[in-house]
Automatic annotation (TrEMBL):
InterPro entries: DUF445. Residues 1-16 have a biased composition (Basic and acidic residues). GO terms for cellular component: plasma membrane. This is DUF445 domain-containing protein. It holds the Pfam family DUF445. Residues 1-36 are annotated as: Disordered. The keyword Transmembrane helix applies. Keywords: Membrane, Transmembrane, Transmembrane helix. It comes from Streptomyces davaonensis (strain DSM 101723 / JCM 4913 / KCC S-0913 / 768).
């Protein structure tokens, strides 16, 4: 018992320091039954219910308690017997055994007090700085949150940890595997389908229509159309359109000669003879057919040259003539304001969405095949390209640092709020079930070490006294 007083004082001092550190933020103690906003209900239930595994651990704690208590009773019995033997004149050995047993009892009782004080008041007596876990639960949660924030969510720690992992090279090697690329492709396709399914067509159509209209209103289209037309004429791209138009016009005239001549005759004055109107109609039809035929068959026809000059002049006016540009802008506004154009925009989105969803669902679609090939190519490059790996690592580090520095308070508050939402009694029982068995070894070790220390001290004392 001579050497255990200092150890008891040290354990008491440790508990006092723990409870004193937990006193920081005492004013923020909350009701243990509360469920703060943002704390998942599953986290609260996890600390208020006992699972089968918890029950098994609690039975293990009870067995270890019986073992430690049994050892205490054993050394107490040894102490009584040794004292009796010493009084009966058994010899000096009885005093050694009694000293060892006495110190063992002191060590066992001191450690019993220390272990019990963590979870409840020893013997039900409200001794200060006991029942630390149930009474200081919220403050321990605050301290735990601050500890995590300072030591795990700091910028230097996050960067150092991510840099040591080498995410770029690992991700590249992982993506380079065809099975992994298939998995990522399937997950991205499912996410794309889900996003397009959640979006309401009316909302997207309204946004797209407004964006197109706003962009068209904000930008003048005349000069752009003029430059494009000028380039088309310079490259001769319009000639195929002219060829198509005159060819179709020729075919139409051949098939509808009677209608053309009737139209000419119908426009003649009423006082002219009918045979004159007929001859005029025939003449006009023949001249018109001859003109179209020559224009179709002669690339150098004067009408084609006139058309080229007209298009060049029109392209120049679109770029420089104020009146022409203003008329184009008015026409643009009228076209965009028509309901048919807005319906066209809406139908275009519906068609695009349907096409994307179908492509995302089809494993052999061009979209998924190209996505898979891109992932494999990216993975192969990332696995061997140090520059690309460095870029990926930098992006990941930057994103992680931004999250932990911006939302560190929210992350740590999740810890403190979750601990505050736990019921004190159930929390104490659950913690004791998980670590109580190991704590009982402290009692056992205190008994054994106390006995050895008592024996050593008694031996040294006798030797010095002798």
């Amino acid at each position: 018992m001579y050497g255990d007083r200092g150890r008891v004082e040290r354990m008491e001092r440790s508990k006092t320091e723990l409870s004193g550190a937990s006193d920081v933020g005492e004013h923020s103690r909350r009701d243990a039954s509360a469920n703060p906003v943002g704390v998942p209900a599953s986290a609260v239930r996890a600390m208020t219910t006992f699972s089968a595994a918890d029950e098994e651990k609690q039975r293990g704690v009870r067995r270890m308690k019986l073992t430690a208590t049994g050892l205490l009773l054993f050394v107490a019995l040894v102490y009584v017997l040794a004292k009796w033997a010493s009084n009966e004149g058994a010899g000096a050995w009885a005093n050694y055994v009694a000293a060892a047993a006495e110190a063992g009892m002191v060590g066992a009782l001191a450690d019993w007090f220390a272990v019990t004080a963590l979870f409840r008041h020893p013997l039900g007596i409200p001794i200060p700085h006991t029942a630390i876990i149930p009474t200081k639960k919220d403050q321990l949660g605050v301290s735990l949150g601050e500890f995590v924030g300072e030591n795990f969510l700091s910028e230097d720690v996050v960067r150092q940890r991510l840099r040591s992992v080498g995410i770029g090279s690992r991700l590249g090697a992982w993506l380079a595997e065809p099975d992994h690329a298939d998995r990522v492709t399937a997950e991205l396709s499912a996410a794309l389908r889900g996003a397009l399914t959640v979006l309401r067509d009316s909302d997207v159509q309204a946004v797209v229509g407004e964006a197109i209209t706003r962009r068209a209103d904000a930008q003048e289209i005349g000069p752009g159309i003029g430059k494009m037309l000028e380039k088309v004429v310079a490259d001769g791209g319009h000639k195929r359109v002219v060829d198509l138009v005159v060819s179709r016009a020729h075919d139409w005239l051949v098939l509808h000669d009677e209608q053309v001549m009737d139209a000419v005759q119908g426009g003649a004055p009423g006082w002219t003879p009918r045979f004159v109107d007929k001859r005029v109609g025939e003449r006009v039809y023949k001249e018109l057919l001859r003109f179209v035929t020559e224009m179709r068959d002669m690339p150098s026809h004067p009408a084609r040259g006139a058309l080229d000059r007209f298009l060049n002049d029109f392209a120049a006016d679109l770029q420089s003539d104020t009146e022409t540009r203003a008329r184009v802008e008015r026409l643009k506004g009228e076209v965009l304001g028509r309901g048919e154009v807005q319906d066209l925009i809406a139908s275009a989105w519906t068609a695009v969405r349907s096409m994307i969803v179908s492509a995302a669902e089809d494993e052999r679609s061009e979209l998924r095949l190209r996505l898979r090939a891109s992932l494999l190519s990216l993975g192969a490059r990332m696995a061997v390209d140090p520059k690309l790996q460095s870029k990926v690592d930098s992006w990941v580090e930057g994103a992680a640092v931004y999250v932990v520095t911006t939302y560190r308070k929210e992350i740590t508050s999740l810890i403190t709020d979750t601990v505050a939402s736990w019921d004190a009694e159930h929390t104490t029982k659950k913690i004791e079930a998980h670590i109580g068995r190991d704590l009982q070894f402290i009692r056992i070790n205190g008994t054994v070490v106390g006995s050895l220390a008592g024996l050593l001290i008694y031996t040294v004392s006798r030797a010095l006294g002798a």
